[in-house]
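INPUT
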Amino acid sequence: MSRAKAAGPLKVAVPRGALLGETLDALDAAGIDTSEVRGESRSLIFPGQNITLVTMRPSDVPTYVEAGAADVGITGKDVLLEQSDRVVYELLDLGFGRCRMVLAGRVGDERLGESERRLGMMRIATKYPRIAERYFEGTGRQVEVIEVKGSVELAPLIGLADGIVDLVATGRTLEENDLEVREEILECTARFVANRVAHKLRAREVDGLAAKLRQGLAR
Amino acid sequence: MIHPIPPGTRDVLPDEMRELRRLHLALIGVFEEHGYGEVATPAIEYDEVLARGDGRTADTAYRFFDGSGDLLALRSDMTVPIARLVASRYAKAEMPLRLCYLANAYRAVRPQRGQMREFAQAGVELIGAPAPEGTAEVVAVLEAALDAAGLERAVIGLGDADLYRQLLAEFGIDGEARNSILARLAAHDLVGLETELSDLEGVGDDQIATCVALSQLRGGKEVLSEARALGGAAVERATARLGETLQALEARGVAQRVQIDLGLLRDLGYYSGAILEVYDPALGHVLGGGGRYDGLLKRFGIDLPAAGFALYMERVHVAQMEEEPRGGEGP
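OUTPUT
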């Protein structure tokens, strides 16, 4: 079991990668100084008077927040859904980082349908096995979900899978790899989440930050 | 040579056991001082008996058949076995009845992150003492137990189990939609809560705002008037109950650690009225919980009000170690 110290500044988990820029903009709008994170520093932790920013992979945010190692954090809904067994409080839809979780297949290729019809099962490569499993189960179809870590677009191109379930922002990557969207699964945006105990014991700070983030978004 | 044990279980070696034993003795000492007698019950019970207490435990219970084909289950808490014990052994006893325990319980969870399949709980059950006085006594014992464990910064969240059931009934939401919304509230998924409520027919924007705002109200006594300002009969009743409990706590001088929390929902099926949760700033997980379960004993054939709490011993021990450098008494 991981432990956390409650004293000191509120620890905010900040996602590196695609969500970083807009997350920092949102924090700026909420009156939090993010210049250090934007700078050249290779640090992961940026201490402040009332708030300490901790940068990490988006998929690690629920882990740190659930354990209370970070009090609150920002990450994508896709991450939260994929790790839905993690207990974090989802307090706010931040609206940015909008993208779609889709089922995609090769352009002009009927392998998805053919596998389903003739083999009773589709092979789906994805970085989001739980979202994929839930989606196909919910729509009454059988699939073999193949979890991959890297570029999932590769899988249907060289015959690992019939199609992919992946996150799409602009659709460029799909296009470049001769893939097309077949079904939309859900839409994802960035969310503000809190640790269960921090939400109770640091109520004023957590609510204050949520309110400032909300105001910043409305502007 | 390494011989594995199932995930979610563990061995305890002497250094840890010595500290745990000290903690056990301190807690049982506090319970005894307050007039609670320690009981033990079998770890295995008839599945039918446990399910009578809380049908939903079936999801996470370890169940198996014995040689004569009876379906048995490992207990997943001590409250239901003690309700069974009271109904069979103390049906004619003078009330209130004060019982305490230190026991292992079992849940078939995916073992990870401090979620153990086998875990130790220490707690009390106060049978036959109604709200608010009975609730106040249980909170007083809980406070003394936290002090004895050296967790002086620990906080007790106090909420109301009936609030949202009644509020949603008031909004005309029932059946599957109600359960789904209660699940969102329990998970504090505010985004999902708002979406789901606005997808329902006949639920207005102000009702959505009330529901979301209520779930975020936590703090001192002022929270009760803030809640009342949101209006509605369900809120009125819940805040009245909470106010009475708070008054009884103040009369006993045990209200300092208590934080009113209108967002509190416990996921066990048998709670009614006041519910409790215990937090320590040193730990990101809940240390324990409890509350009133006035309807539970009726399911076993005796209609008596009851309340209690349980602390997760492993978590209390972790918090104890984390609090030590702060000059708390430690183990």
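end of record. Chain B has a mean pLDDT of 91.
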